[in-house]
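haha ok so turns out i had the wrong file open the whole time. this is the CORRECT one, sorry everyone. sequence first:
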Amino acid sequence: MSSPQLTPKMINPTAPGVPFGREVAVELRKLIGTRGPRVLLGLLVLIWVITALVLLLTSGHLTFGDTLTGFSAVSRIFVGLLAILLVTGEWGQRAVMSVFTLEPRRERVIGAKLCAVLIGAVAIFVVAVAMAAAIVAIRGGSFDFAAAAFRMNGLRALFDVLMAFAIALAILNTAGAVVGYLALPEIIMPLLLMLFTLPTAGNSGSNVYESVAPWVYPQEMFRAFASTNVPGEAWAHLLVCAVLWIGLPAIIGVRRVMSSEVK
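then structure:
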């Protein structure tokens, strides 16, 4: 009995590629549908619930700005970790070969992951704003300077998620990216500033810190955006910090992803 003859399939170079919207949908499923992200989202919801109960059951004056800042501070950390997992998970599990086989245009994979991360970050920020507003309304708190608080926390949320995405691209390792995202801007940078701005003969360390920190230290830079009237120099500080913490890692990361040999 002769075996059936199999007709080989030829590659059609003119066939349409995978639609970008479908790629974004796949990355969104990875962002919320796998075990690691589900654990992180569950922890975030638990922290939100505990925070909400504490704010509702305690006495004292409550403002929208302070409440939103509290919710956003926790949310930013978890959104950054989700972004890192989405970028580095396939490289750590050696599944990136399958990804680039299905979609050899690596720039589209990076773009789809970035879109999915931004969609997730916006959704989480909207929930945080809604919870903060609801708690303040229930407690009869103050909504003074709500616009300034919304602007500052929104910009900080966008900055942090883009920074986490860029650092993850540059390192391509989950543990290393998490350490870099949490330690570099929040621990190592202020320590370096304190070390290099110690008072010396003829100058004041505090004055040196105040002049240098807003240009390189995100935590210090965003203080100016909490006021109702943001000075023009604050936007220059934001641009420099974005180039340092987002632009440079992103350039290194995109170059690595586009040129790395996949094994």
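The chain is about 75% helix and 0% strand.
again sry for the mixup
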